[in-house]
TrEMBL record:
One of its GO terms (cellular component) is mitochondrion. It comes from the Eukaryota. Keywords: Membrane, Transferase, Transmembrane, Transmembrane helix. Residues 18-41 are annotated as: Disordered. InterPro entries: CoA-transferase_III_domain, CoA-Trfase_fam_III, CoA-Trfase_III_dom_1_sf. This is Succinate--hydroxymethylglutarate CoA-transferase. The keyword Transmembrane applies. Belongs to the CoA-transferase III family. Pfam families: CoA_transf_3 (PF02515). The chain crosses the membrane at residues 430-449, 482-506, 512-536. The keyword Ribosomal protein does not apply. One of its GO terms (molecular function) is succinate-hydroxymethylglutarate CoA-transferase activity. Residues 23-32 have a biased composition (Low complexity).
Length: 547
């Protein structure tokens, strides 16, 4: 990937020539260009590099993501030395994470969207000499290049640090790999799970007496992305002083080993092998999760004063007088007995009750939340207020937050409130019910239109059946037009609103079928009035009613 502060990383599939021209003209030492080609060689990481360049994009870089060619637009050099957009017809879908799901938002993978904001995408076939030339020209105008090919692959294509450094001496070239550029495993592909296993992270993660467990989030990838981002920022500062670029070697294994922190220090300095502790801390007690009456709570008593306060809240003040628990060292030594006593007490109350008791006492405590509960936390909601809604460049209104859409009726404004206040599943269920109600409303509108057309017929003159028949034929056509226009308009708006929410084909189908049924019923009801009313009307026994 390429990044430029005006960063340059390619990921999605189309770049306007103006954007590149601006980058070339205004590119500064703060620019960062990320290049993450995936079409050649092994694709090692699908998170570390994109995460690093996403942060650069958050800081203001213009990032262009390079992907393998697919059925989207590619940027190719024109004969005028500039760039032009040209459709490609090669097989492939770009970044692997585009297909990682469900869940999907429309046709986009949520996983892909989560790590690729602030980026433009570019499809380049590096097997084609023209594609390699595009990369060279981009490297010449960008500040930073981030790649995650197997070591040596890009050099074989003439796109290594030495070759591109000759094109742009100020280029900062960041290589992210599984095991680094040298060593016996340098040519081995590496993903987060593999690096997490090899680095010992899985060995220390999981239940105390259970099997090794993969962390719930790709922490190795995320840590590597953070290290790469920090190294790029440092390299930009260094370039500001020296005027020269450099080569950054960042890999998953080294990043994760460095994150072992005191676990590694315990072994290197004291020869102590680590083991799994579940939620507990091997050197501090109590410092772990406890089961409550309705969930779990984590208590972190990092010193003797906090331990005393924990005992006071639990109404176990006698523990503070026990010589076996006078210091943290003694508590660690007598861990099993102490934790058994604390666990029994915690199970007697609900999580909310314990949190209320600990409030204001200076003891770090917190519930173990589900993801749904995370986004219901008051503190999290304060953070969410700072979120910036970003319009997707290719999905148009489909991906825009619902509260920012221009809606045409009161029902749609109600959907705005539901969008903000209710979970997605509940929201879509209520949405379906509201759309059904809206269809019923249109049913009565159609019924009204049909009756209005019927009654608005002019009374024929005495004995003049032709005039009435002519009026009736004319109004039948008008009635048909009104009904069809209303049907088409209502169906299209309903389907459009549903499509804005993503893949809800079931709701759309049900709504459409229901609507067609209601319209058919409406026409049947109106038709049932036609014959007797027309007979009475032509016989002069039905007064004319004008609306």
């Amino acid at each position: 990937m390429f990044a430029t502060f005006r960063a340059f990383q390619s990921r999605t599939g189309g770049l306007r020539p103006a954007a590149l021209t601006t980058a070339a003209a205004e590119g500064s030492p703060s620019g960062a260009s990320e290049r993450r080609p995936r079409g050649v060689g092994h694709k090692r990481r699908v998170l570390a590099g994109p995460f690093a360049t996403m942060i650069l994009g958050d800081l203001g870089a213009e990032v262009i993501k390079v992907e393998k060619p697919g059925q989207f637009r590619a940027l190719l050099p024109s004969n005028k030395g500039n760039y032009m957009i040209k459709p490609t017809c090669c097989l492939g879908v770009g970044d692997d994470t585009r297909a990682w799901g469900p869940p999907f938002v429309g046709s986009e993978s949520v996983y892909f969207l989560s790590i690729n904001r602030n980026k433009k995408s570019l499809a380049v076939d590096l097997k084609n000499p023209r594609g390699a030339e595009v990369v060279r020209e981009l490297a010449g105008v960008c500040d930073v290049l981030v790649e995650n090919y197997l070591p040596g692959k890009l050099q074989e294509m003439g796109l290594g640090f030495e070759q591109l450094g000759g094109v742009n001496p100020q280029l900062i070239y960041c290589s992210i790999s599984g095991y680094g550029q040298t060593g016996p495993q340098a040519q081995s592909p590496g993903y987060d799970s593999i690096a997490s296993a090899v680095s010992g992270m899985m060995h220390i993660t999981g239940p105390e007496d259970g099997e090794p467990v993969r962390p719930g989030v790709a922490m190795t990838d995320l840590a590597t992305g953070l290290y790469a981002h920090g190294a790029i920022m440092a390299a930009l500062l260094q370039r500001h002083k020296t005027g020269r670029g450099g080569h950054i070697d960042c890999n998953l294994l080294s990043s994760q080993v460095s994150c072992l922190s005191h676990i590694a220090a315990n072994y290197l300095n004291a020869g102590k092998e680590a083991r799994r502790w579940g939620t507990a801390h091997e050197s501090i007690v109590p410092y772990q999760g406890f089961k409550t009456k309705d969930g779990h709570i984590v208590v972190a008593a990092g010193n003797d004063k906090q331990f005393v306060r924990v005992c006071q809240v639990l109404e176990l003040i006698e523990l503070t007088q026990d010589p076996n628990y006078k210091s943290n060292k003694l508590r660690v030594k007598n861990r099993k007995k102490l934790l058994h006593t604390l666990s029994q007490r915690f199970q007697q109350e609900k999580t909310a009750d314990w949190l209320r008791r600990f409030e204001g006492l200076g003891v770090p405590v917190g519930p173990i939340n589900s993801i749904r509960e995370v986004f219901s936390e008051p503190q999290t909601c304060i953070c969410l207020e700072r979120f910036l809604a970003v319009v997707h460049p290719t999905m148009f209104l489909r991906f825009r937050p619902l509260r920012y859409r221009l809606l045409c009726c009161a029902v749609d404004w109600l959907l705005i409130l539901l969008d903000c206040m209710t979970p997605l599943l509940v929201y879509r269920t209520i949405l379906a019910l509201l759309l059904i109600c809206k269809s019923l409303l249109f049913f009565f509108i159609l019924l009204y239109c049909g009756m209005r057309v019927l009654y608005v017929l002019k009374r024929p003159g005495p004995g003049d059946g032709g005039h009435g028949a002519e009026s009736w034929n004319s109004m039948k056509k008008k009635a048909f037009k009104v009904i069809m226009i209303t049907l088409v308009f209502n169906s299209s708006t309903q389907l459009l609103q549903l499509s804005l929410l993503g893949p809800v084909i079931l709701y759309a189908s049900i709504t459409l079928i229901l609507q067609i049924t209601l319209v058919s019923l409406c026409i049947s009801i109106v038709s049932s009035f036609i014959t007797p009313l027309l007979y009475l009307h032509r016989a002069g026994k039905l007064p004319c009613i004008n609306f």
